[in-house]
Every structure is written in structure tokens, then in C-alpha cells.
Design brief:
heterodimer, A: alpha/beta, Rossmann fold, 2 domains, 10 helices, about 25% strand, globular, B: mainly alpha, 9 helices, about 0% strand, elongated
């Protein structure tokens, strides 16, 4: 269970999050939508304590991440896997070393077992047999899928996706969405993605939250949000600009 | 003007405090975590083995020019044979560690700051953290250990090369009597001179690693940020070596001289 309570964050006096509160239950597939630069990635990074809030709390299974130091956070972060916007593969390592990074570092399994687990994770993201390649030799879509294999190999409880389809062509985007959905269905991992790609949001979620003006403006099932008649939600979902944008004051529950 | 100076002093003190914190976190890491020996060996190779040509060239060039200049001055007062002693003591306790430190800053420190800075702006350091790995354990400690071990070894190499090169210049080129040259080098180069040089080199190695890793880990966004962090790392480490050398000379000479 993830609970965010009254989260505030500013960068150089510019407020980005203005009191975000939300709850995500285990096993949900949630997508957070919102305009570019609206704080979606900032919110996602708070969930795994890559950023510390100015005010508010992030609780994972009752543990307040904001009260832990970097070393204490390591154990909590073991529950998470994260796919970064640019995949964030380690340049100096090949695909096998990237995907097996945690297992190789912890040395809990023999090398043959790690090889088997890496091959299994790569198969799950439809990229078998590329263990010896370097990240520089891979396309954008392949890099993201390798990043996903790295995130799932140690079976985390929660998977975070930062703009999983950004920078990919529609076919590659649909393919990674398929992989995300299959991982959620097969492994039962709580899935939280941020995106402004509505086609992707529709494919990988069963619940959508809309971040607008620094707060959660709308919260509902995927179908409810996609068919919402609220002007702000409708405008975003259908890509129709409205001017001036109304100011959000409270969460709209659909 | 006074405000700008005050801000600069403030920034410098803040950096020094943050570098001290990084040292503290590295010590904590060494206490609670076994360092990654494979990463340490990889760094030792990158820092130690690959820096040899630069350090040897620097040592040889410095030894030769120091020998020639000392000879030209001493020749006027007929003290030609003392040239070797001046070169040897100067190289062992001052020029060897300082110049090797500066060369390591340029070759290794800049690369460390740029590599970690690029990792930061491409979210690789965030990725490490989400993989339940402390960046200090995985990135800083192996580099700190590698530079702390490699710097005195490379300095020793630079000093020996410098003395040997000065011998060739002094004896073969300028005509100093070889037996006297060697005798004066042996007579005036004390064990304390060598110890002072190696202690300085060890401290300089650790300083370069900490400052350059810190600048890389706190690099601002974008390519410009990486460039700025690399420049700042080289400038800060070089100034720390040059200023620190003076105080270390005073302190270590009192303790060991």
C-alpha cells in the first residue's frame, strides 16, 4: 500500500507539487497523467524517495520514507523497480551485467543461476539472446525493455514507469505497453506509470489519476477518465487546448 | 566586490563541508559494506596503469629541467656536484607529489567528474539508488581506494624517473662527475624526505578522488552542467593540492624532518 499525504515540493521557489494526496493499493495498475512539466516525474521520484519533499509524507506499507536516511532507504527500495525515461542503463556494462546488476552485486546466487534468471527476464521483455551487447548498440525501444528486465529480475512489489513510451515510434510504444501489461498480469506487481500518452495510458492502466496545477485533480477508473466530461480532463484526454486553464481547487472523484 | 568575495568564500566552505561529509560516508561504507574488489581493480587499472606514461614523462621532464637550472646557478659558485642533492630532495618531497597530483587531477580527476556527472544527468545514479545500491558504496569507495593506493606508487615512479633523468642530464650532458653526483644524492636525501613525499601523495590521491567524485555526483543538469562540474573539479582539486602542499610541508617537516 502506497500513501501520499499532503506532498509539497518547490524548485527554486517555483512550486511543483502543492499538496498531493493519494492512495494506491497493492496490485493496482495506475497511470498518472498530466501536462509536460506538471510534476508527474517529480511525484513518481518521491514515491521511491529519489527526491525529498518540502512538506508531507510518503508511506510504503506504513513506513514513512521521508524520515529515513539514504542508507536506511536501501532496504525499502528493494521493494521497487523503476523504468526511467531514458532507460538509464549503465553505459560501461553490457546487457547481462545491467540486467543482473543487483544479483551480481548481492552474490546470493551462483553465476549459472544468474545467467538463467537474466535470460528469463530478457525473454519476458521479448529480447532473448542480447546479453553481450552494450547499451550503445541498442535502439531506444530495446533500451527501455532492457531497463524493464533489470527492474523485474528481482521481483519487486512495485514497478514505477517514467514516461515508458516517450521517444518511441507507435509500434515500439505499443510493444512496450504490451510487455508492461503482461508483467502486471503475470507477476501481479503494483504498477504505477506517469505519461501524457493517452493511448499508452489506456493500454496499461485500470485506474487513472490526473495531476493538474500541482494537485491530483481527477481520480477514477480508466474508462471513467477517458469518458469524463469535466472540461480540464476532457481537454487533456482529447488533446484540445483550453484557454485560460481553470485553477484546480480540489480532487474531482469520477 | 566584498559581496562577491563573501559568496565565493561561502561556496568554498560549503564545498569543503560537503567533501568532508563524503569522506565520512565513505568511511561508514568501508565499515559496514565490503568494497567491490572487482570495481576497485578496474579503477586501479584505469588510474594506476593507464596514468604511468603521463606521470613518467612529467617526472623525467621536471628532473631534467631542475637539474639543468640548478647546475647553471651552482656552477657559478663551483658547487656543481651538489646539483644531484637539490634535485633529489626537491623531487622526493615537493615536486614529485605535487606534479604527480596535478597530472592525476587532469587525467583521472577530470575523467571521474565527467563520468559521474554524465551518470547523474542521464539518471544512472538514480537508477543505482532504485536498485538498492548506495552510490558512495558503488562509485566513490572504489575510486577513493584506487587513487589512494595508486597516487603514492605513481609519485614514487615519477621521483625515481626524475632523479634518473637528472643524472643523465647532469653527468652525461653537463659533465658533473658521476660518482660525486650519486654520493650527494645518497648523502642528502633522507628517509624523511621520501616519507614526506609519499604521505603527501597519499593525501593528494584521496583529495582528488573525493573532490572530483563530489563534483560529479552534484553535477547540474545538461551537457553544460557536466562541463562546468568537470572544470570546477579540476580547479578545486588543483588549488587544494597546491595550497595543501605548503601546509603539509610545514606540518610533516615538523613531525618527521
Amino acid at each position: 500500500m502506497i500513501e501520499v499525504k499532503d506532498l509539497w515540493k518547490s524548485f527554486r521557489d517555483t512550486p511543483v507539487l502543492k499538496g498531493v494526496s493519494l492512495t494506491i493499493a497493492a496490485g493496482e495498475a495506475v497511470v498518472i497523467i498530466g501536462r509536460s512539466g506538471g510534476g508527474k516525474s517529480v511525484l513518481l521520484k518521491h514515491l521511491v524517495a529519489l527526491l525529498q519533499p518540502d512538506r508531507g509524507q510518503v508511506q510504503i506499507d506504513g513506513t514513512n520514507l521521508c524520515s529515513l536516511n539514504e542508507r536506511s532507504l536501501l532496504a525499502v527500495r528493494r521493494k521497487f523497480g523503476m523504468l526511467f525515461q531514458g532507460a538509464a542503463l549503465f553505459d560501461s556494462l553490457n546487457v547481462f551485467e545491467n540486467v543482473g546488476f543487483v544479483l551480481l552485486r548481492e552474490k546470493r546466487y551462483p553465476l549459472d543461476e544468474i545467467r538463467r534468471l537474466v535470460a528469463e527476464a530478457l525473454e519476458m521483455v521479448e529480447l532473448s539472446g542480447i546479453e553481450d551487447k552494450k547499451p550503445g548498440e541498442l535502439s531506444g525501444g530495446m533500451r527501455k525493455r532492457v531497463g524493464l528486465a533489470r527492474a523485474i529480475i528481482y521481483r519487486p512489489e512495485i514497478l514505477l514507469y517514467d514516461e515508458p513510451t516517450t521517444g518511441l515510434d507507435p509500434i515500439a510504444g505499443a510493444r512496450i505497453d504490451g510487455v508492461i501489461r503482461r508483467i502486471w498480469q503475470q507477476l501481479g506487481i503494483t504498477s504505477i506509470a506517469v505519461t501524457h500518452d493517452m493511448a499508452s495510458a489506456k493500454r496499461i492502466s485500470n485506474r487513472i489519476l490526473m495531476l493538474h496545477e500541482g494537485v491530483i485533480y481527477a481520480d477514477g477508473s480508466t474508462e471513467q477518465i477517458l469518458h469524463s466530461v469535466d472540461p480540464i480532463v476532457y481537454s487533456f484526454v482529447n488533446g484540445i487546448p483550453i484557454d485560460p486553464p481553470p485553477t484546480a481547487s480540489s480532487t474531482l472523484t469520477i | 566586490m566584498a559581496f562577491a568575495l563573501g559568496k565565493r568564500l561561502d561556496d568554498t566552505l560549503e564545498t569543503l563541508g560537503a567533501v568532508a561529509q563524503l569522506l565520512g560516508e565513505s568511511v561508514r561504507s568501508l565499515r559496514y559494506q565490503r568494497p567491490s574488489w572487482s570495481e576497485f581493480v578496474r579503477q586501479l587499472y584505469a588510474v594506476g596503469v593507464k596514468s604511468q606514461s603521463v606521470v613518467i614523462t612529467t617526472g623525467a621532464a621536471t628532473g631534467m629541467v631542475l637539474c639543468a637550472q640548478t647546475y647553471f646557478q651552482f656552477h657559478k659558485v663551483r658547487l656543481d656536484t651538489a646539483t644531484g642533492a637539490v634535485v633529489s630532495v626537491g623531487m622526493a618531497s615537493e615536486l614529485g607529489p605535487t606534479l604527480a597530483g596535478l597530472m592525476l587531477t587532469a587525467r583521472v580527476g577530470a575523467s571521474m567528474a565527467a563520468e559521474l556527472g554524465t551518470m547523474r544527468v542521464t539518471e544512472q545514479i538514480d537508477a543505482l539508488r532504485t536498485l538498492a545500491t548506495h552510490p558512495v558504496d558503488h562509485l566513490v569507495v572504489p575510486r577513493l581506494l584506487a587513487l589512494t593506493v595508486a597516487a603514492p606508487l605513481l609519485t614514487g615512479e615519477a621521483v625515481l624517473t626524475g632523479i634518473f633523468a637528472s643524472y643523465l642530464v647532469g653527468v652525461k650532458l653537463l659533465g658533473i662527475e658521476g660518482a660525486y653526483y650519486v654520493a650527494y644524492v645518497n648523502r642528502y636525501t633522507a628517509a624523511s624526505d621520501i616519507a614526506i613525499g609519499l604521505i603527501k601523495a597519499t593525501l593528494f590521491g584521496a583529495t582528488i578522488a573525493l573532490i572530483c567524485c563530489y563534483k560529479g555526483l552534484t553535477c547540474p543538469e545538461g551537457a553544460e552542467g557536466v562541463g562546468r562540474a568537470t572544470t570546477e573539479a579540476v580547479v578545486a582539486a588543483s588549488i587544494t593540492i597546491l595550497v595543501g602542499n605548503f601546509f603539509l610541508t610545514l606540518l610533516l617537516t615538523q613531525l618527521l624532518g
